[in-house]
Amino acid sequence: MAAMAFIGSDALRSGRLTRGQLRWNHTAVHPDVYVPKDANLTLALRTAAAALWVPGGTITGRAAAALHGAAFVADDTPIEVVGRSRRPQPGVIVRSELIADDETTTVAGLTVSTPVRTALDLARHLPRMRAVAHLDALAAATGLSPPDVLSLAARYPGARGIRRARQRVQLLDPGAQSPRESWLRLLVIDAGFPRPETQIEVRRPGFTAFIDMGWRALKIGLEYDGDLHLSDRGRYVRDIGRHETLGGLGWLMIRVVKEHSRAYILHRVHEAFRLRGPLAKSA
User: Fold this and answer.
1) In angstroms, how far is the first alpha carbon of the chain from the final one?
2) DSSP code of residue 157
């Protein structure tokens, strides 16, 4: 059974626990908010504890994104709550902001910002790269689109960070399958290259592949190889054959790993565009 957060004084008042049981078997993660001493402090447990610490609040930001099914939210991520300001607590960010009733929903028994409001808050409050990566993951999980978020942003023309939020939301792409793919996409966009298409499907009889991102008309593919390619030998072997087949179909594939510098990556993309120049003119 999953560990649960609870209000200590409520447990004592109801007789569910004695003071000794509370002291010896549980630990306070916030004032009067307890979890079992041996509990694994997962994101879900920390989110539930933060909700108890800020009664009447709304979970938003990265924790809300995770509750809506978004991937790549770490267990130690700060829990963001819109609600009544309280004494600062480690790992919890409380913001006294406006949030309308139609911008909240209930997930796992908690009051949570809707996917659209969650996206707006991600875009407003996080650094640009981190914001876009989380927006990508949230869009992949929920199907939200930039117009959805921009429509909500119109409600708050003077809110903090709303201008940058409008810019960042338009960069989201649900085709990104990892934060590093989001980073790679922004890298080439910021360098002035056309915005790449994500999850490009390539078919021939007996063969189907999806390229992380690239430029279909030029047949330039760009892929980020994460650590899974090192640990999963079978996948590594399959990818060798996959890239050979794509090359035979005329695709110029650029593979990126974490050791590659920005300059090196952009040089390779530039060279690929130079080589495919005649194709670009005829496309």
Assistant:
1) 59
2) T
**Does residue 92 contact residue 78 with C-beta atoms inside 8 Å?**
yes
pLDDT 10s digits, 10-20:
999 999 999 99
**What is the tens place of the pLDDT at every residue in 170-192?**
999 999 999 999 999 999 999 99
**Closest by Cα among 13, 10, 18, 53 to 33:** 53
Q: How far apart are CA 120 and CA 202, in angstroms?
A: 34
Give me the sheet containing 6-7, strands edge to edge: 6-7, 33-36, 26-30
User: What is the rounded CA–CA span in Å between residue 17 and residue 9?
Assistant: 10
**Cα(79)–Cα(59) distance, integer angstroms:** 7
Pairing of strands 110-113, 104-107: antiparallel
Strand, coil or helix: 235: helix
- Dump pLDDT digits (tens) for 231-273: 565 666 677 778 888 878 899 999 999 999 999 999 999 999 9
Is 13 in a helix, a strand, or coil? helix
Closest residue by Cα to residue 179 from 27, 77, 36: 77
Query: What are the tens digits of pLDDT across the range 75-100?
Result: 999 999 999 978 889 999 999 999 99
Which residue stretches of the chain are H helix? 8-14, 19-25, 43-53, 61-67, 115-125, 128-142, 146-153, 162-169, 179-190, 228-231, 233-248, 262-275, 277-282
Tell me if 72 sits within 8 A of 179, measured CB to CB.
yes
Q: What is the reported pTM?
A: 0.92
Average pLDDT in the chain: 93
Compute the distance between CA of residue 278 and CA of residue 47 in angstroms, rounded to an integer.
Answer: 54
